[in-house]
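Hey, quick one: can you model this chain's 3D structure?
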Amino acid sequence: MTYKSASAILTQPPNNRQNGRITVILLALIFAFLYYHFIVSHAPLGIKWRPFHEERVLNALQNIHKNNILLRFGFTSWMPAHHVSYQLNTPAPDLYLVTALPYLAHILLQSILTGYRPALHGAIVDYCLITYTGILITLLFYDKSNITTMIEKIYWSVAVFTIYLTSPWAYRMSLSMWHEVPFLAFYLTSIMLITWNKVRIGLIFSFLAALINWEWAFLIVIFVSAYLLICRLLNKTYTFTTTILPSPTNSGPMLLPYLASLLMGVGICWFQALGAKLIGINHVGGSFLYRVGVDKLENIHHGGFLAALQFLGGNRLSMCMPEQLGLEGLNSLNTKIAFFNCLSSIGGTFVLSSISIIGFILLSRRRDTLARLLAPLTWSFLVYMCLFQQSFSVHLQGHSFVFTVIYSLGLASVIRLVSSYVSRHQVALSIPVSIPLIGAVIITSIRVSYYTGYNG
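Sure thing. Here's the predicted structure for all 456 residues.
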């Protein structure tokens, strides 16, 4: 396997790079269509919105229309509109608030499409957004990988996409999308645009990403700021071009606008929450200590660090209990077989996830541009998982979606390394060797997705 410097790759003819990108996108879209067609027919839950998610979206839209005082502060609520109206007429309303920005897309579609139904048309938008996020990861891999041959670059880029889309974490977002999906889509779009020298548009997307989910944006800002501060304290230069910021924001003049775009979004979210608090609205989503899990012993949803790590299996181990599998007890042979194979599937995904983490670490140690570029996001994921253990354990299906970046890139890198070693670095042989390995990953991921429970 031959390698070439990043600068040499970027000096390839623009037409070749552009044609390669188009080919990758077309192959990814074809695979996405085939995958969704397959999963609709075979997955127990298909890809329809879960009833609780549809109810949340409908309540959020109704509150935007009927209780638009919340919208003044950038919020809506998952609670029924009549309950929100009642609470707003009390001296100290207790409401579960969520950012309204992701739901404004539904409002726009309602004004454009006659007979718009969120559970139908909105779900299609969700599938497109999930697919678009995977394509962004794929294109970043295509642009930043050190693979020299065009066929191999296209092949492994598509491999990254297939591993991403078939993962249990991506599948669950088709059942009930969390705000992590639009955040990741906007954040990766900003990175992509900035690396393509579309800096101003890229800064707009980073600002929108922060508006959608300020927690992730705030952690990213902390990481970048801490890196800069420690470098200054150690009297070391900022080697931006090989580290953590997309070019050209790694230059001095563009560094502050990049951080400012994220901080502006975070600041607006804070001021909105403060404004709602000043008029007496109490957010009942849980305190900081409650989400960490150390507020009191009675917080039964906190299982420590190990419970927060259960996302690595792609599904909860509790889904293997006989009642969850629709079986009675562990007396019959078939029940024992089903129980064992469920544990094997989730355990296998746990192993694959661990391998992907090792692969991503190896990318960083090889000074891979893409791994370094995603360092702020991966560090934020690590902090989120380690700090908010209760929240991560309870809501692992939403927060863990960010892990798809590490999983797809890290696992594809390990498979490529193994297949290249077995084939003695012969490209013509390494690709056929990798096909069964990627197939094993896809089949295991789909099997684990089948175990997804009623509530997604």
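One thing worth noting: The mean pLDDT is 86.
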